[in-house]
Amino acid sequence: MKTLFFSIFLITNLLSIAQQKNQLSIKVGNQLFIKPCNASKPEFVGIEIYSRNEIYDKTNVDSLTGKGLSQAFFNTKNLDGKRLPCSMGGRAYTIAAIDNFTDKGITHRIVLLYDYYPLNLIMVDYESAVLNNEIGNPNTQKTGRKKKSK
Q1: Dihedral sign (CA 62, 63, 68, 71)
Q2: 67 pLDDT exceeds 90?
Q3: N or C: which terminus of the chain carries fewer CB neighbours within 10 A?
Q4: Is the sign of the CA dihedral 43, 45, 46, 49 positive or negative?
Q5: What CA–CA distances, in Å, run from 119 to 13, 46, 49, 75, 123?
């Protein structure tokens, strides 16, 4: 009986440690890796990209916490949004802000990422992207880059 209890305890602890290592570190300023698209899908499910055609006012945006970014960026009628295309997967992006909002009684965690083009923001519905295996930790992903030979 003691052996069975010890075995269950050991397995539970090992699984807990493995889950902690695989958890994503979502913090403003960190990188979030968007995995390559699933071959059976033409675009991402939980990730969208929004584009503006004019510069937005960043004076009320706290660059350390990301507070104010959603209001500054999305405060326009000249905004184009669509699902993130597969061509933008397989890369790490910098986390710009983390927001929560409630829709129909369900709280969603939204992670905003900076794109390489300054008038774009990538919006990740965190739970949906995790559920669909669309994001990962940049430290554990293979980027496909070759090391330089000496």
Answers
A1: positive
A2: yes
A3: C
A4: positive
A5: 45, 20, 10, 13, 13
pLDDT at 140: 56
Q: Which residue has the tokens 């990730």?
A: 47
Residue 132 pLDDT class (50, 70, 90 cuts):
very high
Q: What are phi and psi of 44, to 5 degrees?
A: -75, 155
Residue owning tokens 């999305």:
74
The number of C-alpha atoms within 13 Å of 150 and in the hemisphere containing its C-beta is: 0
Query: CA–CA separation, 146 vs 14, rounded Å?
Result: 33
Closest CA to 93 of 24, 43, 18: 24
> What are the CB-based long-range contacts (under 8 Å, 24+) for 112-115?
112/66, 112/69, 112/70, 112/73, 113/32, 113/34, 115/49, 115/88
- Name which of 93, 87, 89, 86 is nearest 138 in CA terms: 93
Question: The whole model's pTM is what?
Answer: 0.75
